[in-house]
Amino acid sequence: MATVDRAPRETDVRDAAIRGMSTRNPEEFRKYVYKPADALPMPQAPPGIRYRYVRRSINGEPDNNNFGKMMREGWATVPLGDHPDLATSVNESAKNSGLIEIGDLILCKIPTEIMEARNLYYANMNLQQMAAVDSNLMKESDPRMPIFNNRESKVTFGKGS
Cβ neighbours of residue 8 under 8 Å, at least 6 residues apart? Predict the structure, then answer.
C-alpha cells in the first residue's frame, strides 16, 4: 500500500476554502478579528470634548423639549465638516444642514469640564436623596422591630453559597 503525504489534522482549517485562504497556515485566520458594525458610529472626540447622540425627533415628530434642554445644558451640534468620514451614514436631508444626523439623533459635543460638573451635581443629589430616605426610615423605626440598614452585598461562587 502506498503512503499518502498528509499534513497533520491540527493544521487543517475546515472553512479555509470559504475564505480563500491557505488550508495549511492557521495563523492567517488570527490576523483579523471580526467586530460587528456599530448602529451609531462614534467618532473619536478631540481632547477635552465628549460626544453623545441627542434625540431631536421621535418618528419624524420634533422633540423640541429634549433637544432644547440639551442645548441649554451646554451641548452643541457637531458639524459634518469635523468628521467627513461619517457622510455615508448621515440622513440625506441632514447633509444639507451640515449636521451629523442619523435617524432621529444628532451628534453633539460638550466640554469635559461641564460634563464632570454635571456628574458631580447628580452624584451629590443622589447622596442627599439617600440620606433623606435613611433619615425617614430610621425615624419610623419601632424598637420592637429594629430596622437594619445594611447596604453591603456579597458575591460567592461555588457550593455553600
Answer: none
